[in-house]
């Protein structure tokens, strides 16, 4: 597939608290065919650890 399904963008950044639901969202994107772009960014907002993970749709060879 040359483009992401359902009109999704080729570049996405998922963000959220460091909890299983965030990991599930990233896992679902990988299952669709996205690849991780670099490592995650992690910060603390005073209450929770917040993670951001960039994902890209693989380029055609």
Automatic annotation (TrEMBL):
Source organism: Streptomyces dysideae
Full protein name: DUF1737 domain-containing protein
Top-level taxonomic group: Bacteria
Domain DUF1737 residue range list: 10-56
